[in-house]
Amino acid sequence: MSKEPQYLVQAVLEHRRNKKSRKNEYLIKWLGYDHTHNSWEPEDNINDDVAIADYFADKKREKEGKARLKELLRKKKELEETPSDSEVFSDKEDDAAADDVEAPEVKKARKNGERGSSSRTQ
């Protein structure tokens, strides 16, 4: 009685659904063999449930990591679009500086207006 050799799964690399058989297949990296020996195997041929579970756990972590990265990039973009306190303060200073720089006619009109109102109240 000759036994078929048992190959050990090093890792599950990918998965797909076979359209004809309607079964899951996994791209297997075999322990002790290089990547040229990777093969697509139906789920029934794989006797390592832990390798399959690890593969899907890794996929889930990868998906969560991508979602987290996307959220962080969104927040970063929001922060870049929102003016900082120093920019807001700087804008107020610019407005005050602009108020200090008046045309001579405006200054003269203001002075005349102030004198006129003060003489009326006295």
UniProtKB/TrEMBL annotation:
<feature type="domain" description="Chromo">
    <location>
        <begin position="7"/>
        <end position="68"/>
    </location>
</feature>
<dbReference type="InterPro" id="IPR051219">
    <property type="entry name" value="Heterochromatin_chromo-domain"/>
</dbReference>
<feature type="compositionally biased region" description="Acidic residues">
    <location>
        <begin position="92"/>
        <end position="103"/>
    </location>
</feature>
<feature type="compositionally biased region" description="Basic and acidic residues">
    <location>
        <begin position="104"/>
        <end position="114"/>
    </location>
</feature>
<keyword id="KW-0539">Nucleus</keyword>
<dbReference type="InterPro" id="IPR000953">
    <property type="entry name" value="Chromo/chromo_shadow_dom"/>
</dbReference>
<protein>
    <recommendedName>
        <fullName>Chromo domain-containing protein</fullName>
    </recommendedName>
</protein>
<feature type="region of interest" description="Disordered">
    <location>
        <begin position="76"/>
        <end position="122"/>
    </location>
</feature>
<dbReference type="InterPro" id="IPR023780">
    <property type="entry name" value="Chromo_domain"/>
</dbReference>
<dbReference type="InterPro" id="IPR023779">
    <property type="entry name" value="Chromodomain_CS"/>
</dbReference>
<dbReference type="GO" id="GO:0005634">
    <property type="term" value="C:nucleus"/>
</dbReference>
<dbReference type="InterPro" id="IPR016197">
    <property type="entry name" value="Chromo-like_dom_sf"/>
</dbReference>
<dbReference type="Pfam" id="PF00385">
    <property type="entry name" value="Chromo"/>
</dbReference>
